Amino acid sequence: MFKFFKRVKTVVGSELNAMLDKAEDPVKMLDQFMRDMERDIREAESAVAKQIANEKMLKRKYDDAQAIVDKRQTQAERAIEAGDEDLARRALEDKKNYEQQATLLKESWDVAVKDSTSLRTKLDEMKAEYQDMKIKKDTLKARAESAKTRTKMNRTMSSIGNDEAKQGFERMEEKVFRYEAEAETSEDLSYQTRSLDDEFDKLEKSSGVDDELAALKKKLGKE
């Protein structure tokens, strides 16, 4: 378990480029690595808890055996004072048995304490490494997302000159130019037509005045 945890740390720390080369999604892979590390930590915590429970059990048994040793010693002394040597002998024999048990239990408890300490140290190291990897994961995820965004933008910018939208805008721009040209031409023609009509109207008006003036002069004998 601890070796696998180390392997995961190595992969996260040094093989990101390899993942990218293999077209793996680094964000999903990093999340998976973190889940694997969390699972390892939970397993390590369970192992430490069991070891601590074993350590406490051995300590309790050792204390119980040692308590009986002390009790039998006191009882043997009381039996001697009471003049019951046989009872004192039996108390001492039982004391010796519990002393042997206490010795074995003490040795087992010492080993259990050592193992518990070692496991707790490794668990603390795993948790510290997990926190380091969590920070690195967040940094790598941000970098990966930024790289993907830049790549997408670069691809979009590189193709924007050939896309249909731009070509469509250019076609619409040409149509607008044509509409404007047609409008200007129409206005010119309309102006020319109006000017010609105005001149004829003026001519007709001038001719009517001239005729009336000639008739008046004839009437007055001023021709």
TrEMBL record:
Q: Which residues form the signal peptide?
A: none
Q: Which InterPro entries match?
A: PspA_VIPP1
Reading the lineage from the top rank, the first entry is: Bacteria
Q: What is this protein called?
A: Phage shock protein A
Span list, region Disordered:
144-167
Per the record, the similarity remark reads:
Belongs to the PspA/Vipp/IM30 family.
| Species name | Salirhabdus euzebyi
**TM ranges:** none
